[in-house]
Amino acid sequence: MKKIKCLCILILCMVFFAGCSKKTDVEASTLFIEKKGNIISVDVEELDKEYYDASELEDYISEHMEEYNEANDGDVEKASFDVKDGVAKLMMEYGSYEDYAKFNGVELYSGTALKAQAEGYDFDVKFYAPKEGGDGLEEASKEDVLADEDVKAVIIQASLNVQVPGEVLYVSSKDVKLVGKDTVSIAEDLSKEEAALTYIIYK
Questions:
Q1: Concatenated DSSP letters for 94-154?
Q2: Could you read off the pLDDT of 144-196 as tens digits, one per residue?
Q3: What is the dihedral of CA 102, 78, 182, 129, to 10 degrees?
Q4: What tens digit of pLDDT does each residue of 55-82 get?
Q5: Which sign, positive or negative, has the C-alpha torsion 50, 55, 56, 62?
Q6: Which residues does 131 contact at the CB level (< 8 Å), separation at least 6?
Q7: Closest residue by Cα to residue 109 from 200, 9, 12
Q8: What is this structure's pTM?
């Protein structure tokens, strides 16, 4: 019985680390919205060896994480940190979207579109839907977006890739690029003083 239990734990660990490995294969910073409500982020940054020390950077991240968790009763964990060929990849796990938003100092919402409206998010923005065949986007109405009460929303103010646990139905900017049925790439408009909120609607 003890051997069976150990084997089960080993299999679970292998599955977990296989999933981590797949996520860290990304070449751009990516936010993964998980089905259970937790958030996984992979930050990808090029480091200038003359100014950055990998071990010092990792120590700073760990210290900041511990301080945040203690002060906010938070659920933030460092899953992995690796520097290869001058590129650093940091994988973090957050117990909720609130933890991600507070820890990183950015705006983020993840949940149903109905709850987002109840929390004050304004859906009076231009929406776009993927064209049939996946070639570009076409304009959609707010009524189209909210016609299905079961749709979920990710609302974020950041420049990165976002992967959702479902199929992207609408986005709030035609400048957002679809890089898969479940993934969008948000490019920051440097001409604006403040980045706009990006709405990603999926099911």
A1: ESSHHHHHHHHT--EEEEEHHHHHHTT----S-EEEEPTTS-SEEEE-HHHHTSSTT-EEE
A2: 999 999 999 999 999 999 999 999 999 998 889 999 999 999 986 544 556 78
A3: 20
A4: 888 888 999 999 999 999 999 999 999 8
A5: positive
A6: 137, 138
A7: 200
A8: 0.85
